[in-house]
Amino acid sequence: MGGDYRYDPPDGPIPVLHRDAHLLVVDKPAGLLTVPGKGPDKADCLIARLRADHPGIRLVHRLDTDTSGVIVFALTPAAQAHLGRQFEHRRTGKTYVARLWGRLAPDEGLVDLPIGVDWPNRPRQHVTETGRPAQTGWRVLASSDAETRVALTPLTGRSHQLRVHMAALGHPILGDPLYADGLARAFPRLMLHATELTLLHPDGGARVAFRSEPPF
Fold it and tell me: Is residue 196 part of a domain?
């Protein structure tokens, strides 16, 4: 399962999971920025690729470059404001699937460790007493001595939260270029996928769910 870490934004169309007059839900590939970074070499990104076919697209939230999976965009200013408030007040539900180094025990639990910027090593984050509160729930889906497959539920939304918390447990996410070392890092991609997102639809408030199966 090993190999050298490589990080190339994929070509080809972005899979659309859902579209209506208010929102657009897509399956983000790993290796692609959500929004442009600094410099011309980081102009290629998810929102830029989608804008050609969806010119009214508006940012609501982000996924790490290395993370794949479900992400929602707004198509109107009102929908952007409605969805933004949901993310701000934690009214959305997010579930990720990850493959971790080693056997994680027990079968479920909660990480409650504050996270802050590791300033000398940016963009890394780290667990620190001066950080912001951060909580992540986990549930083991399958395990062996070599690795554990887990469902992760972030209860807060700190930068790199799932990656930092799993590394803090001694079980980094496989293929993580920032928080894994040695054989745990030697995978073709970060083994982290946003598999389900639930939210209140901006038109009427019904709770809706969008899902994408992990590609690993």
Answer: yes
Task: Read off the pLDDT of residues 75-123 as tens digits, 9 standing for 90 and up.
Answer: 999 999 999 999 999 999 999 999 999 999 999 999 999 999 999 999 9
User: Residue 141's domain is classified under what CATH number?
Assistant: 3.30.2350.10
pLDDT digit string, tens, across residues 50-83: 999 999 999 999 999 999 999 999 999 999 999 9
Q: Which residues are designated catalytic?
A: 64
Question: Can you give the pTM of this predicted structure?
Answer: 0.94
DSSP secondary structure letter of residue 65:
T
3-state secondary structure of 104: coil
7 inside domain? no
Quick check: is 175 in a domain?
Answer: yes
Candidates 92, 89, 90; CA nearest to 23 is 92
**Distance (Å) of CA 19 to CA 63, 68, 91, 193, 204:** 19, 19, 21, 21, 16
Please give the residue range of the domain that contains residue 64. Answer: 16-211
